[in-house]
Amino acid sequence: MPISKNLLNRAFEVDEPNRVGSDITYNKVGKKWLYLAVVMDLFSRKMIGWSLESHMRESLIIDAFNMAVSQRVYADGLLLNSDRGVQYRGYECQAMLKE
C-alpha cells in the first residue's frame, strides 16, 4: 500500500487535539521478547492506547489504536503519526485507518 505523506514532519508539539503518535518497543523478559505498541495523544501527552504481545504483527497496532479511539471522542481529521514501519503500512492497519 502507498505510504501516507508525513504531515507532522517530526513536529511533535501540537496545538490541537486529534494528533496522535504511535510506536512499538520491545523488551526481553526472561527468555522471551515482548512487544509493546503505544498510542500517545500528542496534545495532552497522555498514553491513550496500548497493546502488549509476544509478536509484532499488525494486530498489535490495531489493538492499541482501537483502545485509543475508544478513550476519546474524535472528529474527522484524526492523524496518526508513526515511523511508517511494516506493521503500519500493512493492509489491515491501513484499512483500519481509512475507516
Secondary structure: elements and pairs:
Elements: E1 19-29, E2 32-41, E3 46-53, H1 58-71, E4 79-81, H2 86-89, H3 91-98
Parallel strand pairs: 1-4
Antiparallel strand pairs: 1-2, 2-3
Could you characterize what this model shows?
The protein is of the alpha+beta class. The protein has a single domain (19-98), classed as Nucleotidyltransferase, domain 5. The protein contains three helices and four strands; from the N terminus they run E-E-E-H-E-H-H. It has helices at residues 58-71, 86-89, 91-98, and strands at 19-29, 32-41, 46-53, 79-81. The chain has a four-stranded mixed beta sheet with strand order 3-2-1-4. Strand 1 and strand 2 form a beta hairpin. It is globular, with a radius of gyration of 13 Å. The two termini are 15 Å apart.
Strand content: 25-35%
Radius of gyration: 13 Å
User: What does the average pLDDT come to?
Assistant: 80
List the domain count as a whole number. 1
How does CATH name the architecture? 2-Layer Sandwich
Q: Mind summarizing the main beta sheet?
A: 4 strands, mixed
**Total helical segments:** 3
CATH superfamily (homologous) name = Ribonuclease H-like superfamily/Ribonuclease H
Widest beta sheet: strand line-up: 3-2-1-4
Class from helix and strand fractions: alpha+beta
CATH topology: Nucleotidyltransferase, domain 5
What is the number of beta strands? 4
Characterize the overall form. Answer: globular
How far apart the termini lie comes to: 15 Å
The H-and-E topology, N to C, reads as: EEEHEHH
Assigned CATH class = Alpha Beta
Helix coverage percent: 25-40%
State the low-pLDDT regions, or none. none
